[in-house]
Amino acid sequence: MAAKKEIDENLNVALREVGNIKPWYDECVEAWVFSHEKYPVEYAGDSKEEVIENYPKYIKEFIKHRLNRNLSPIMENKTTGRGGYRPGSGRPTGTKKEPKQRIYAPEDVAFWLKDNENLALVRVLKGFLQVHSEIERPNQLKKVLREGIR
Q1: SS3 annotation, 90-112
Q2: What crossing angle do the helices spanning 116-131 and 107-114 adopt, rounded to 10°?
Q3: Sequence-distant contacts of 19-27: CB under 8 A, at least 24 apart
Q4: Of 47, 67, 73, 109, whose CB neighbour count within 10 A is largest?
Q5: What pLDDT shows up at residue 117?
Q6: How confident is the model at residue 69 (pLDDT cuts 50, 70, 90)?
Q7: How far apart are alpha carbons 150 and 147 in whole angstroms?
Q8: DSSP-derived 3-state class of residue 86
Q9: Can you say how many angstroms the Cα of residue 35 is from the centroid of all Cα atoms in its chain?
């Protein structure tokens, strides 16, 4: 439990760091507001005088909680504000990823294609069809496939 003297000393240091309390009118909340970057304390009131009078009380309460270690660690940590972005993250430059395209197929075909061996068979078939480009109609394709399977 923090002593009253210790709280008052820290309050005096905090008020010196904050300096003059100059509230501004925030139209979003329709009130006079004041906050300072060094302390996560914000106060809003109906008038400038109210904010100037009550802001030190809120800082005092914050200091009391800080000295008693009743604050969440997140309250004390300063974040970079990058929103998930980190320098050097992502795919390394120079690496290539195979281009893909989404298709809709019946479930049994989709599960069959997920197997890499079957996907390799489809690529072989594609290469075969490119070599034998004279096949123009589906009936000719069926005929060639039947002959190739036997």
Answers
A1: CCCCCCCCCCCCCCCCCHHHHHH
A2: 100
A3: 21/51, 21/52, 21/55, 21/56, 23/48, 23/51, 23/52
A4: 67
A5: 83
A6: confident
A7: 5
A8: coil
A9: 26
> Is a pLDDT exceeding 60 seen at residue 13?
yes
Cβ contacts of residue 145 below 8 Å, gap of 6+? none
Does 32 score more than 90 pLDDT?
yes
Would you call 111 exposed, middle or buried from its count of C-beta atoms within 10 A (0-12, 13-18, 19+)? exposed
φ/ψ of residue 100, rounded to 5: -130, 160
Tokens of 25: 């009118």
Exposure string over 81-106, b if 16+ CB within 10 A, otherwise e: eeeeeeeeeeeeeeeeeeeeeeeeee
The whole-number pLDDT of residue 50 equals 92
Question: What's the predicted TM-score (pTM) here?
Answer: 0.49
Q: By the 8 A CB rule, do 23 and 51 touch?
A: yes
Q: Which of 6, 2, 42 is nearest to 26 (CA)?
A: 42
Q: Are 44 and 32 in contact (CB under 8 A)?
A: yes
108 token code pair: 């049994």
What's the half-sphere exposure (Cβ side, CA atoms, 13 Å) at 95? 4
